[in-house]
Amino acid sequence: MKRLVSLVVVILAVSLGLGLTAHHLQRVEGVVGSGNNVLNLYNWGDYIDPALITKFEHETGYHVSYQTFDSNESMYTKIKQGGTSYDLTVPSEYMVQRMKADHLLRPLDKNRLTGMNNISSQFKNLAFDPHNEYSVPYFWGTLGIVYNDKFVKKGELTTWDDLWKPQFKDNIMLVDSSRDVLGLALMSQGHSANTHDQAQLDEAEQKLTKLTPNVKAVLDDEIMMYMEQNESAVAVTYSGNAAEMISNNSHLHYVIPKPSTNLWIDNLVIPKTAKHLKAAYAFINFMNRPENAKQNAEYVGYSTPNAPAEQLLPADVRQDKEFYPSASVIKDTQVYQDLGVKETGTYNDLFLQFKMFRK
Amino acid sequence: MKQGKLFYYIPYGLWIALFVIAPVVLIVYQSFFNIAGHFTLSNYATYFHSGVYLKMTFNSVWYAFLITAITLLISYPTAYLLNQLKHKQLWLLLIILPTWINLLLKTYAFIGLLSRSGSVDSFLTFIGIGPKQLLFTDASFLFVATYIEIPFMILPIYNAIAELSPSYVNASRDLGASGWQTFSRVIFPLTLDGVKSGVQSVFIPSLSLFMITRLIGGNRVITLGTAIEQHFLVTQNWGMGSTIGVILIVAMVITMLLTGERKKKGRTRHAK
Amino acid sequence: MQSKLSGWSKAYLIIVFIILYAPILFLVMYSFSKGNTMSNFHGFTFDHYQTLFHDPRLIQIVLDTLIVALLSSLFATIIGTAGALGVYETRHRAIRQTVLSLNNILMVSPDVIIGASFLIFFTMLGLRLGFISVLLSHIAFSIPIVVLLVLPKLNEMNASMIDAAADLGANPWQTLTRVILPAIMPGIFSGFLMAVTYSLDDFAVTFFVTGNGFSTLSVEIYSRARQGVDLEINALSALWFLVSLLLIAGYYFLEQYNQGRKTKNRQQVEAVIK
């Protein structure tokens, strides 16, 4: 019994010690007791250069409390349910639309924003948020195909339809997302990836069934690790993930497939529950500055929507047609719109069936 | 001991009320709402009428069964042998230590080890078997799932064996029982409580396994856990997700009844 | 039972341990790689350790994680052991079964469901999300495994010992602390260790119930997945592993030393009496 009690005491003492250390660390960082000088930033993990956060803190005196999430939907649930107050978050375009519809966002006060002219007009005033009333583009990219030149020759993959070629039998990895997989089938048939037309969806589903012999696995972010390890010849994934894997394996290449693909944009927005508006605007304006946007793009490896920042990037990056495609390619892309709960359900059920009954 | 019982049940009962019954009520309540927020029984109808969900249920139970069986086969001898070691407490702690490293990282490590350019494949090539597709197979999926569950099985079995008095084993040997007879008639029955506890702590969570099914299995097999994950986080159809949750809970209760304790002799002591 | 292990038995145990530790050694190895990810070793470097030591945010998260793990496991062990004792004392078979089924509900429910319902529950109560809500949730989902590990030890316990203690005039408290608890110590201990595992491993529940300024390592690692988990995390895991190993070894040998001293003392006392 004595031993038990002493163990309990030791555990409590250690926890207390850790707690005090943590508190001390926070004080050094300046979180505690600074009240209104905080910016609660809710972002994807590792989605900003930490050096920029330090720079922002030194410049403005705000302390950034950086919290992370791993998917749009889980972030949405947290913000909708309440109990927290984040000042800024970074949803993708369709999620901006849904959050807007659910009155979870605060309209932006254009008078307090600077540097909006730096954002390329290609990414402004899109259907998910007309006139950018609520959102400021942060990073953007496309959905596309990554191939390994050990197994696939250049030029063998240029359209979505090429995925159906028998030579890729059991050699394609797909991203685990109903919008993207159904979307690629829809787009390969020249339909809109936002369609509500059941006939088009059924047609897409049938076409996908024929793809199953080629599908090796349906994966999420771990696709990067697999492709880097040469586990598969081809993967359907986002340009962001593609950039990451290409930097680690020079055999990999990214293609934007024809006839059209999806364009995604992650955006800074201010949730309704935000408490530190001044800090939030200061941060948006800070990130809109070309030198900061450029530094962030170099760290994260995604494409920046900030036009002057793009010009600051090294020539080999900004001239890479797969990550900074020409205006005409961007014109052909489709941006996802929020389908509404019911249609999202339909897409998901079709995708689930595709996954359940392959092979 | 009447007061003792009440005393024990105060914190535990409070926990059951707040963190078990309250969430379950919430889950059951939600399972009656469809995606548009209308009260309905349609979620249950969908579940029982669609081949998709029935197949999924079958998958979940089947793979949970396989995982439990393999884990038991590996863990029992391990627990038994650990008990014979000199510093057995230390070795037991070393069995648990790997569980303190983040699961996602360990899974990534397995991807690295099992992939085409990984060490296991090089080893297979080296010993002449030649490169094999290891990932996205049932074998690799079961292997990693077993890996995760092993400590949960070893612990209770180890504790049960540690308690076993060597005199029973010796007596059995002296009476001329063979090694197998000693095991099947003496050792195994006496450690059955530990085995049951291990089976419960492996089988029940395995029913709702997800993540590994995607990371290692490449979504070849879809289990109820994966479906719930999808419904909560992608479709945001919490109603359907909750419905599957309710079904999992029912399945668990059935498992409990099947593996539950029979009436035992020594249990009557307070009957006086 | 202290028979020498045969060659086969030794080989079997060695294989089990190799498999258990293979992925961890893989992670540790890559913490020294010059590259950015866990594919293709690029030569030796300490860079990732340096990055780690200059990342106060990550260190803060590690401390938070440890506090939650230790405290939640402690409370879960206490409540869980009490629960197991309660179940043990319950004679009515149907009630036992019901309680045990309730006990296991949190084990069978996927983390997202638990997380989402706890989130709804806490916000309904108006509790501020943060350290307290995370701690409460971790205690909550660790209790069932403690009960499952303590209960078989109780069932194995020789029931006549309790009756003997009562006959000798021990009050319930004395019976508990002097007879029952020592007998079920291994179960309690395993329960605590597994509760630590549950707490360290949990991602989904913590994610849902945490609030501003509080995070755990699992949440951080999972949310880095989209950008690719970088090797700083490997370096952290390597250190984490080393410290756990030292703690375990230290604890074990301290224990051995104490027990050794006790026996020595007893021998001395016996010698004096003689």
Feature tags:
heterotrimer, A: 359 residues, alpha/beta, D-Maltodextrin-Binding Protein, domain 2, 2 domains, seven-stranded mixed sheet, three-stranded parallel sheet, 43% helix, B: 272 residues, mainly alpha, MetI-like fold, disordered C terminus, Spermidine putrescine ABC superfamily ATP binding cassette transporter, substrate binding protein (chain A), signal (chain A)
Sequence of secondary-structure elements of chain C: HHHHHHHHHHH
| Unreliably modeled segments of chain C | none
**Major sheet of chain A, described briefly?**
7 strands, mixed
Q: What is the CATH topology descriptor of chain C?
A: MetI-like fold
Instruction: Please estimate the helix content of chain C.
Output: over 70%
Principal-axes geometry of chain C comes out as globular
How would you concisely characterize the structure shown here?
Helices cover 43% and strands 16% of the residues of chain A. Chain A is an alpha/beta fold and 359 residues long.
What would your notes on this structure say?
The complex is a heterotrimer of chains A (359), B (272) and C (274). Chain A has 359 residues and is of the alpha/beta class. Helices cover 43% and strands 16% of the residues of chain A. Chain A is built from 14 helices and ten strands. Chain A is globular, with a radius of gyration of 23 Å. The termini of chain A are far apart. Chain B contains 13 helices and no strands. Residues 263-272 of chain B have low confidence and may be disordered. In chain B, helix 7 (138-163) runs antiparallel to helix 10. With 272 residues, chain B is mainly α. In chain C, helix 4 packs across helix 6 (131-156) and helix 6 (131-156) packs across helix 8 (172-201). Chain C has one domain: Orthogonal Bundle (MetI-like fold). The chains are: A alpha/beta (359), B mainly alpha (272), C mainly alpha (274). Chains A and C meet through helix 1, strand 2, helix 3, helix 7 and helix 8 of A and helix 3, helix 5, helix 8 and helix 10 of C.
